[in-house]
Design goal:
By secondary structure, the protein is α+β, with helices and mostly antiparallel strands. 29% of the residues lie in helices and 35% in strands.
Length: 306
């Protein structure tokens, strides 16, 4: 930034220009950074003549053009003023933001380390769109489920959007699961604020759900550690409907799981199952319920009444 200012002064000397060339040759990155800042500086031409406080403050330090740049202590202050607002003016990635898309396949579990120090854990068949800019950090849960470990920053809120709602971090670790008809939020640590049609705070060890219309709905009581057991390769069910259990098991395998009779869906399942051991889970379910397991094809399983 110092060189950008010096080379634009009317009193710049040949010695100054030679010193600048020497500086450029010291590191290839110097030229890249300089050219980048020059482009941003020239982009400020549209503000010439505009009256706004930061510009007025900066111009108050402008020295007479006859001064040699080494005498322009005030100019360094002006540069500091611009750099204070600075990153936003000269580095558009910070102002406009950066985008990233992350996804997992069936059965895949991946941890993403974000630039702010936060972490995302993506469950099977999940997709998120991450956007960070100067004002806030946002993550859109497009499908699936993700666990968020957030570095809290009150000046740059961390917000997760899912269906017709937003989950705002207030210093926490939490899970968001986007289902076909609703969104489930489980808080492991700290607090989140959920903004849908209304607003609610959710504290540690609490669950909350809202439907696709943004209306809060009743959610069966469940321990948060069971809700997030997938992070440790397990699924834990406590008196859950069989049709719901099959949906959960199906998320992790490229096999179609179905019921021969929809009436079987109301049967209740309790137990702890290993995610990567589908056949074992089905055998346990069949041994505790009046059903049998059939395999019409290699990629299909049907549960029938015994």
């Amino acid at each position: 930034m110092d060189w950008v200012l010096k080379l634009r002064s009317k009193s710049v000397t040949q010695e100054d220009r030679q010193a600048f060339e020497n500086w450029l040759t010291k590191d290839p990155e110097h030229r890249q950074i300089f050219e980048r800042l020059v482009a941003r500086w020239e982009g400020l031409d549209r503000f010439k003549g505009a009256d706004f406080p930061v510009r007025s403050k900066a111009l108050s330090y402008r020295p007479p053009v006859r001064y040699h740049w080494r005498q322009w202590g005030g100019l360094a202050v002006a540069a500091s003023v611009f750099l204070a607002l600075g990153v936003s003016f000269f580095i558009p990635e910070v102002w406009n933001g950066s985008d990233a898309l992350y996804s997992t396949h069936h059965g895949q579990h991946e941890t993403i380390n974000l630039a702010d120090g936060s972490h995302l854990e993506l469950n099977s068949d999940t997709e998120v769109h991450v956007h960070f800019n100067y004002w806030k950090r946002t993550v859109e849960l497009v499908r699936g489920e993700a666990f968020f470990s957030v570095v809290h920053d009150a000046d740059h809120p961390f917000v997760v959007t899912a269906a017709n709602g937003q989950i705002k971090d207030i210093g926490t670790e939490f899970d968001v699961y986007l289902q076909a008809d609703k969104v489930l939020i489980g808080v492991q640590e700290g607090i989140v604020r959920v903004n849908a049609n209304k607003s609610r705070d959710v504290s540690a060890n609490q669950l909350l759900a809202y439907n696709r219309a943004g209306e809060f709905i009743d959610q069966p009581t469940e321990a948060v550690e069971n809700f997030t057991a997938w992070r440790h390769g397990q699924l834990v069910f406590n008196n859950r409907r069989l049709d719901e259990v099959l949906v959960e098991l199906g998320r992790y395998h490229n096999i179609k799981l179905s019921l021969a009779n929809s009436g079987l869906g109301s049967l209740k399942v309790s137990g702890q199952f290993e995610i990567d051991r589908l056949n074992s889970a089905l055998d346990i379910i069949a041994s505790t319920l009046p059903i049998t397991i059939q395999h019409p094809s290699a990629d299909e399983v049907v549960l029938r009444k015994r």
